[in-house]
Amino acid sequence: MSSLAQVGQLPRLPHTGRVTQARVALSEWTKLRSLRSTRWSLLAAIVLTIGLPALFAAVTSSHWGSMSPHERADRHPLDIALAGVNVSQLAVAVLGVLVITGEYSTGMIRASFSAVPKRLPVLWAKTAVFGVVTFLLMLPSVLIAFWASQAILSRHHILQVSLSDHGVARSVIGGAVFLLLVGIFALGIGAIVRNTAGAIATFAAIFFVIPPLMNVLPASWNHAITKYLPSEAGRQLFSPTHDSTSLSPLWGGLLFAGYCAFAIALAAVLLVRRDT
Amino acid sequence: MIEARALTKDYGDKRAVDGLSFTVRPGIVTGFLGPNGSGKSTTMRLILGLDAPTAGDVTVNGKHYRDLPAPLHEVGALLEARSLHGGRSAYDHLRALAQTHGIPRRRVDELIDLVGLHDVARKRAGKFSLGMGQRLGIAAALLGDPSTVMLDEPVNGLDPEGIHWMRNLLKGLASEGRTVFVSSHLMSEMALTADHLIVIGRGRKIADTSTHEFVSRASGNIVLVRTPQATELESQLAGPDVTVTTNEPELLEIRGLTARQIGEAASAHQIVLHELTPQVASLEEAFMTLTRDDVEFRTLAAGERVA
Fold first, then answer.
1. What is the pLDDT of residue A243?
2. Which of A116, A250, B42, B67 is positioned for an S-S bond with B16, CB 3.0–4.6 A?
3. What is the pLDDT of residues A38-91, one digit of tens each?
4. Which of B10, B58, B99 to probe the A interface (max A CBs under 10 A)?
């Protein structure tokens, strides 16, 4: 810092060409990996996704002898293997929100939009980079969660399934797809609301507050409406069992992906129109 | 080159920028001067396309900012409001901006050295002092070697050494043929760096002139005269464009006449003068006189509407 006043003039730089989607994606990758919140959120998601199934498998194993036949029949190995997904979705959602609201709260968005004034490439790049990173970390996590919980249960020779069994691979991979979509849905909400606390509250309302409220409605209404809620539709991706009150994994997953696409599309429209 | 045509921006009922037209030319430092809240920062946001104008238009090098294919090569901007994530290091911040344009890594290092942040480049920018944050913002502005440099209150938070460095940098950038547009609410700072001034108050343009002209026009020809025959001189000088004020006996403050005219009139009427001093208003006074009039006028108008 010492010889500031003596430092000479600005060195020249040959033109390096225009802003491209690929360059913006690289920039967003640098942004994502250079923040502590990214590391902590993803670490929390990994630990919860793997740790909770391992814990539940150990508890189930140790109590198996004292369980009634009815209780034993109620236990499903995939419910145990994917128990962590229900919790780690919150960590993924918070990071999804922060990816965009963090720019608004700090003022970084002004630098980002000055460099990429068309704005939309920033939204596409954020969605793609965050989505790929989340999926690449969550897919191994759910697989490890599956194998770890199965390994613990196998010591007591209980609740054994194979990835080749019907619906098992779909549920396990579906868990990772669900987390990917939750993250994108949260990112969309973040871009619409533009405020961290507001976006997390909105996400929590849609995912955790509205579904239980449906139980207050008459049963016929509840069954007609609930399965179309984002959280319920998305849950079918990794839920091992389905009945008349739920959508199939395919339709549930597609509907949830549709909600995500709608959130991102609305975010895109607002992003271009609004002042920063 | 920045060109604004009848640029107007409303935020709700409040008009922040009001029919502003100006041209910022290359090769000189153009100062953008106005009191706090006069619309300088809003104008810069409109130039960068961060906010959309309510009416009018502004272009950089003949194009709307949003249509520039590689904006960092054309405009480097430092905004007054902090524009970086405090959780990221200075290096990562610049690297992320550079990558949007494919600007190589060594350019980032070059600029970190240029602004003197080498020792703290890997530290989180949120821990930076105001001055260090300002230098990082300047590094970001200069990253793309832009033909136009636009800085909002760049000396804020800089120490004297930093201010000196900034003045030299701005003059250097202009001498290389770049367009340099610098805002400030401090006239004295502008007088040292700016060749041309665009002065605004309440979102309207008050003056668009060379710094030299601005000062001489605003200083308004005040002459201080000390004479034992004050009353006699006053009556001799009386005229439609002449105002005379007296703060103490034998001392007159005369506007509207030059020292030469006063001296000759005194001689013709055999009036003894003890002192005859032309007063050059300070830049700060000139600036305040201009903007105060504008502010008062605007406040009165608003009050009238309410009544």
1. 86
2. B42
3. 999 999 999 999 999 999 999 999 999 999 999 999 999 999 999 999 999 999
4. B99
**Contact map slice: B 36-65 vs A, CB within 8 A:** 45, 48-52, 65
Q: For the segment A232-276, what is each residue's pLDDT rounded down to a tens digit?
A: 999 999 999 888 889 999 999 999 999 999 999 999 999 999 998
Contacts of A107 in chain B (CB under 8 A): 81-84
User: Does residue A103 contact residue A10 with C-beta atoms inside 8 Å?
Assistant: no
> B50 and A114 in contact by Cβ < 8 A?
yes
**Could you tell me if A27 lies within 8 Å of chain B, comparing CB atoms?**
yes
* A13 closest CB neighbour out of B66, B69, B145: B145
Compute the distance between CA of residue A58 and CA of residue A68 in angstroms, rounded to an integer.
18
CB contact under 8 A, B110 and A11: yes
**Cβ distance B254 to B283 under 8 Å?**
no
Going from the C-alpha of B39 to that of each of A50, B202, B206, the distances in angstroms are 54, 7, 12
CB atoms within 10 A of CB A44: 17
- Judged by a CB distance cut-off of 8 A, whether residue A15 touches chain B is yes
Mean pLDDT by 10 residues, chain B (307 residues): 97 95 97 91 97 97 97 95 94 98 96 94 94 93 96 90 91 95 88 92 91 72 88 88 85 86 92 87 70 55 41
Percent of chain B with pLDDT over 70: 91
- C-alpha B131/C-alpha B299 separation (Å) is 35
Interface confidence, given as ipTM, is 0.93
Q: For residue A76, give both structure tokens.
A: 């499903």
In chain B, what residues touch A1 (CB-CB under 8 Å)?
Answer: 116-119
CB crowding B5-27: b at 16 or more within 10 Å, else e: eebbbeeeeebbbbebebebebe
Chain A residues in contact with B100 by the CB 8 A cut-off are: 19, 23-24, 27, 115-116
Residue B170's contacts (CB-CB under 8 Å, 6 or more residues apart) are B29, B149, B151, B154, B180, B182, B193
